[in-house]
Write a structure and sequence with these properties.
The complex is a heterodimer of chains A (116) and B (115).
Chain A (H helix, E strand, L loop, with lengths): L3 E4 L2 E4 L5 E7 L5 E7 L5 E8 L2 E5 L6 E7 L2 E6 L8 E8 L11 E2 L3 E5 L1
Parallel strand pairs in A: 2-11
Antiparallel strand pairs in A: 1-3, 3-8, 4-5, 4-9, 5-6, 7-8, 9-10, 9-11
Chain B lengths: L2 E3 L4 E5 L4 E3 L2 E3 L5 E8 L6 E7 L7 E2 L2 E6 L4 E6 L8 E9 L7 E2 L3 E6 L1
Parallel strand pairs in B: 2-12
Antiparallel strand pairs in B: 1-4, 3-9, 5-6, 5-10, 7-8, 8-9, 10-11, 10-12
Classes of the chains: A mainly beta (116), B mainly beta (115).
Chain lengths: 116, 115
């Protein structure tokens, strides 16, 4: 009965490769997010989708492409991986708008991406 | 743009004692939400407590409470009767009630519990 699940939990790959991280939520939320946590533990928003529509894109390189096939899924594809992409990537979801503005975001367990 | 500042990179407290973690934020908005998240070594992000800016009453959740000072833009977290399981990184986060719903995080405070 996992609420927000990400796969894989760990991803080790070489520079230049292309990789994807998948995220699924079973909470019935309408908005999903990707955050990046760097080596100093700083968390920053990357993307947000509401009902499959992109609503936030925070100056992320074009090599990063989110895809939302439906409102329960938000995947992150990364092309031509670089050393600086090494980080923990968190998926999150929430119900937004209307009377739900005070609802917190629920986070997945994170994917640790290591670039060799 | 909103910013969130946590001025204490590390804190430590004796088990069973009380500790307060500081957080200040900068915003021109009047309606927003504030959160404290806990990240233990397992890496999960766990919601500890939330506060709506329009509520004057400070939020409490069992041993966790906040001191919300809207005019001073301060949102500190008090942990009473500290337990070993409280050891973690604690992040303060801001969310606007307008436009997009992203969380803006502070840099975190690493809390160590001394047995």
């Amino acid at each position: 009965d996992t609420a927000v699940s990400q796969t894989p939990k760990y991803l080790v790959t070489q520079m230049g490769n292309d990789k994807s991280i998948k995220c699924e939520q079973n909470l019935g939320h309408d908005t999903m997010y990707w955050y990046k946590q760097d080596s100093k533990k700083f968390l920053k928003i990357m993307f947000s989708y509401n009902n499959k529509e992109l609503i936030i894109n925070e100056t992320v390189p074009n090599r990063f492409s989110p895809k939302s096939p439906d409102k329960a899924h938000l995947n992150l594809h990364i092309n031509s991986l670089e050393l600086g992409d090494s980080a923990v990537y968190f998926c999150a979801s929430s119900r937004t708008g209307g009377g739900y503005s005070n609802q917190p975001q629920h986070f997945g367990d994170g994917t640790r991406l290591s670039i060799l | 743009a909103q910013t969130v500042t946590q001025s204490q990179p590390e804190m430590s407290v004796q088990e069973a004692e009380t500790v307060t973690l500081s957080c200040t934020y900068d915003t021109s908005e009047s309606d927003y939400y504030l959160f404290w998240y806990k990240q233990p070594p397992s890496r999960q992000m766990i919601l500890v407590i939330r506060q709506e800016a329009y509520k004057q009453q400070n939020a409490t959740e069992n041993r966790f409470s906040v001191n919300f000072q809207k005019a001073a833009k301060s949102f500190s977290l008090k942990i009473s009767d500290s337990q070993l399981g409280d050891a973690a990184m604690y992040f303060c986060a801001y969310r606007s009630n307008f436009g997009n719903e992203k969380l803006t995080f502070g840099t975190g405070t690493r809390l160590t519990i001394i047995p």
